[in-house]
Amino acid sequence: MPGEPKRRHSRARKGKRRANIALLIPNAIVCPNCGAMTLPHAVCKNCGFYRGKEYIQLSKPEKKIPQAK
Length: 69
Prior knowledge:
- The chain has 69 residues and is low in regular secondary structure.
- Helices cover 12% and strands 12% of the residues.
- Strand 3 and strand 4 (53-54) form a beta hairpin.
Protein backbone atom coordinates (compact mmCIF):
# COMPACT_ATOMS: atom_id res chain seq x y z
CA MET A 1 0.00 0.00 0.00
CA PRO A 2 1.38 3.43 -0.87
CA GLY A 3 1.93 5.94 1.91
CA GLU A 4 -1.10 8.18 1.52
CA PRO A 5 -2.36 10.61 4.17
CA LYS A 6 -5.33 9.23 6.06
CA ARG A 7 -6.62 12.61 7.24
CA ARG A 8 -6.38 16.19 6.04
CA HIS A 9 -4.07 18.52 8.01
CA SER A 10 -5.90 21.59 9.31
CA ARG A 11 -4.97 25.16 8.38
CA ALA A 12 -3.83 25.82 11.96
CA ARG A 13 -1.49 22.84 11.87
CA LYS A 14 -0.09 23.95 8.53
CA GLY A 15 0.37 27.50 9.85
CA LYS A 16 2.22 26.28 12.95
CA ARG A 17 4.60 24.30 10.79
CA ARG A 18 5.28 27.23 8.46
CA ALA A 19 5.64 29.82 11.25
CA ASN A 20 9.42 29.38 11.47
CA ILE A 21 10.13 29.52 7.74
CA ALA A 22 10.08 33.34 7.54
CA LEU A 23 13.19 35.25 6.47
CA LEU A 24 14.66 37.50 9.14
CA ILE A 25 16.05 40.98 8.56
CA PRO A 26 19.53 41.22 10.09
CA ASN A 27 19.92 43.70 12.93
CA ALA A 28 21.82 46.83 11.98
CA ILE A 29 23.52 49.39 14.21
CA VAL A 30 24.70 52.93 13.55
CA CYS A 31 28.47 53.20 13.06
CA PRO A 32 29.80 55.59 15.75
CA ASN A 33 32.50 56.86 13.39
CA CYS A 34 30.59 57.68 10.18
CA GLY A 35 26.91 57.14 11.04
CA ALA A 36 26.25 54.48 8.39
CA MET A 37 24.14 51.41 9.13
CA THR A 38 26.33 48.32 9.61
CA LEU A 39 26.11 44.82 11.04
CA PRO A 40 27.03 44.43 14.72
CA HIS A 41 30.47 42.94 15.58
CA ALA A 42 31.77 43.70 12.08
CA VAL A 43 34.04 46.26 10.44
CA CYS A 44 32.10 49.14 8.88
CA LYS A 45 32.09 48.82 5.10
CA ASN A 46 31.75 52.58 4.70
CA CYS A 47 34.69 53.83 6.79
CA GLY A 48 36.67 50.69 7.79
CA PHE A 49 36.48 51.32 11.56
CA TYR A 50 35.57 48.81 14.29
CA ARG A 51 35.37 49.77 17.98
CA GLY A 52 37.17 53.06 17.44
CA LYS A 53 40.13 51.66 15.48
CA GLU A 54 40.72 51.68 11.74
CA TYR A 55 41.09 48.10 10.52
CA ILE A 56 40.64 48.59 6.79
CA GLN A 57 42.02 51.62 5.00
CA LEU A 58 39.34 52.54 2.50
CA SER A 59 40.33 55.09 -0.08
CA LYS A 60 38.04 56.12 -2.87
CA PRO A 61 39.69 56.16 -6.30
CA GLU A 62 40.22 59.63 -7.69
CA LYS A 63 38.47 60.45 -10.95
CA LYS A 64 40.82 61.33 -13.76
CA ILE A 65 39.74 64.47 -15.59
CA PRO A 66 40.43 64.25 -19.32
CA GLN A 67 42.66 67.08 -20.43
CA ALA A 68 41.67 69.20 -23.42
CA LYS A 69 44.09 69.02 -26.35
